[in-house]
Amino acid sequence: MLSSNIKGVTNGFPLVIEVQKFVEKQVDFNSDFLKNMFPKIEWKALVTAARTMGYAELPEEVDSSMLESEDFLQKFHHALLELHLEEGALICPETGRRFVVAKGIPNMLLHEDEV
Amino acid sequence: MKLKQLESHLGCLEQFSNPKKELEQYPTGAHIASRMLFSAENSFGDVSGKVVADFGCGCGTLGLAASLLDAQYVIGIDIDSESLELASLNAEDLEIDMELVHCDLSNLVWKGQIIDTVVMNPPFGTRKKGADMIFLHTGLKVASQAVYSLHKTSTREHVKRTALRDFNAISAEVLCELRFDVPQLYKFHKKKEVDVAVDLWRFVPQKNQERV
Fold this sequence. Notes:
CATH architecture of chain A: Single Sheet
Mean pLDDT of chain B: 88
Number of strands of chain A: 4
Order of helices and strands of chain A: EHHHEEE
Order of helices and strands of chain B: HHEHEHEEHEHEE
Helix content of chain A: 25-40%
Radius of gyration of chain B: 16 Å
Helix content of chain B: 25-40%
CATH architecture of chain B: 3-Layer(aba) Sandwich
Low-confidence stretches of chain B: none
CATH topology of chain A: N-terminal domain of TfIIb
Number of helices of chain A: 3
Number of domains of chain A: 1
Oligomer: heterodimer
Strand content of chain B: 15-25%
Largest sheet of chain A: 4 strands, antiparallel
Structural class of chain B: alpha/beta
Number of helices of chain B: 6
CATH class of chain A: Mainly Beta
CATH class of chain B: Alpha Beta
Strand order of the largest sheet of chain B: 3-2-1-4-5-7-6
Strand order of the largest sheet of chain A: 1-2-3-4
Mean pLDDT of chain A: 84
């Protein structure tokens, strides 16, 4: 959901993920939450992000009927909540500017000339 | 979880050891934090199962309180890396997973309506003028359901007017007035402790398709 915040960038989403280290966490499964989140998610961005972290199980094309499938929900859950970038960078798709991610925390602070 | 339990968990958190006065870093006490999140959940259902963002999270108190009250996903945002480290340690202590972002809220760009509720104890604007309103403005742009915030009671009319007129909030309600004990943290503090009257606000943002 984070978007490039550099002044003048019109198309700062999605940020490209550069992975140096990622972890897989265990998060409690909550199907109501997933169903709620589904319409708010930029699906293609999620698929790409998950792929960058080695998870290619998400279908490219989706529709809301798939939310009835337990199998789909589990994959969605895994990609959305359990894949976590520890070290790497988020890259502005327009300017190529790298926002470093260290210890799981992305640094989105801008330099003076970018504000 | 009961209020007392929540308060006691929050009371064990690590606070700022070297607070930065330009950022107006004051810990949100367990007393206020617990009541804030407790009301948000019990009176309005704005926490459990929701995506909650803590703006200016500092050591993470409000975000962690949200998590303890079963928020599904919590994101803490702060401009200061030391605070984020502290928040990270506190989260670890409570065995809570909290997403953290190092960012300046005045230029936060967020795509989509993922955040349900924003909670915050913003700087009051005594160091950087207008800081409190920048936080509120961003909160109202990002949250889809509600914004909870603390502002000095003396600014009540100004906050209400600005939120409704300039930030397009649908509603702006003072839930209660609290006393925020500001301990003698900085050299410019003359007294050992001072009570500042603050309002706990709940704002409802305008629903838009594409915001920010």
